[in-house]
Amino acid sequence: MQDNLGDFIRAHRERTTPASVGLPAGGRRRTPGLRREELAQLCDVSPTWLTWLEQGRDVSASGKLLARMAEVLHLSAAERSYLFSLAERLDPQHDADAEDAGDSLDDIVAAIDAPAYMLDRQWDAVAWNTHAAALFGGWLDVASSPARPNLLRFMFRAAAARGLIVDWEDRARRLVAEFRADIGKHAGQPALASLIAELSQDSPEFHALWTLQDVVSREGGLRRFHHPSMGELGFNQVTLHLAKRHDLKLVMLLP
């Protein structure tokens, strides 16, 4: 993987012109692109370190450094995402992108004629439609607040969840195992670590299930509810990831 990262950085360095980053193009050059020393200076690292990175040696690049490199090399959104994927690092720009995408996410779920909602990596609901709000009393129908409604907080801390969700114990165990699989290597991210610590402290059930280390893939299938006003309900759950935002999941409960 380090070799692929080095090859990717070198290829984009060699196609980035000095003029595009405000450097004079004078002097004889082997390629029209940036010299290694120039990219190193622009990214505030040593030329030796950058050489080792391009050669695939065992050196580590931080998310902040990769973000700076993506800016200097004028990487597109797809190229930037690929860079962070090769380096196995989180993009610091992730949260800003999530905020900017809000309006389009609302439009997506509003167009679905069935309960539908969208979750981010820590399972906060970032968008939902009126069908979902009507189904999930105590979660998505709550008054607006600074905090986004979180599926795990609802599941383990809201009394309404235990009455609404048929076979709550089985669903709770599966949700925790799905969540562990979902967050994977991101579990140490501050927001996720804080959520896990909070739920472990507030809910003995969550704490017991989290310590089991169970992992299952997030799948669809029958979801059953006992709604206080609509009675017994059954849906087929379908979960999809957005093509341009792999951290977001669209969950649809179809008749």
TrEMBL record:
A GO term, aspect molecular function: DNA binding
Residues covered by the HTH cro/C1-type domain: 8-80
Top-level taxon of the source organism: Bacteria
Cited InterPro entries: Cro/C1-type_HTH, Lambda_DNA-bd_dom_sf, MLTR_LBD
SMART domains: HTH_XRE
UniProt name for this protein: Helix-turn-helix domain-containing protein
Lineage of the organism: Bacteria, Pseudomonadati, Pseudomonadota, Betaproteobacteria, Burkholderiales
